[in-house]
Design goal:
- The protein has one domain: Rossmann fold (3-Layer(aba) Sandwich), CATH 3.40.50.720.
- The chain is 42% helix and 16% strand.
- Strand 6 and strand 7 form a beta hairpin.
- The longest helix is centred in the last third of the chain and has 16 residues.
- The chain starts with a strand and ends with a strand.
Length: 158
């Protein structure tokens, strides 16, 4: 299966390496070109026991790659796993700005069906916010006249 992991920090990089080890074709995206340069040159920007060997073996096998190219990463994976940071806001709640930015990037670049997976450390209700962000981007790219939009009780029929 082709999987894109958005975010190459502790959650994303470890998840991507493990998914590749299971035989999946994984492309890890990060907006930090320095981090991707380290990974593409054979280095590992974080430490987890056994991670460096796991990354090297899966890169060598062609199952694990790294990029900063959003369009390439969205095109690559049927599954888009959002594994970006969720720092605490001033009130202690999770700051979802990076999750929503990733969702918007997926929405702008997708040209077909995608399964979008939120990492496990987001609060309940995040999936609805991700869905809304993707839908807003899709709608902005190809708005339909109101006469073509069919709704019932606030839910569109598809």
């Amino acid at each position: 299966m082709k999987i894109t992991v958005i975010g190459s920090g502790y959650v994303g990089l470890v998840s991507g390496a493990c998914l590749a080890e299971l035989g999946n074709d994984v492309l890890c995206l990060d907006v930090d070109p320095r981090k991707i340069a380290i990974l593409n040159s054979g280095g590992v920007p974080i430490y987890e026991p056994g991670l460096e060997e796991l990354i090297k073996s899966n890169v060598a096998a062609g199952r694990l790659r790294f990029t900063t190219d959003v369009a390439e990463s969205v095109s690559h994976g049927l599954v888009q796993m959002i594994a970006v940071g969720t720092p605490s806001g001033e009130d202690g709640s999770a700051d979802l700005q990076y999750v929503i930015a990733a969702a918007r990037a997926i929405g702008r670049a997708m040209t077909g069906y995608k399964v979008i997976v939120d990492k496990s450390t987001v609060p309940v209700g995040t999936a609805d916010k991700v869905k809304q962000a993707v839908q807003e981007e899709l709608k902005a790219l190809s708005p339909k006249p109101l006469s073509e939009v069919k709704e019932f009780s606030g839910k569109s029929k598809r």
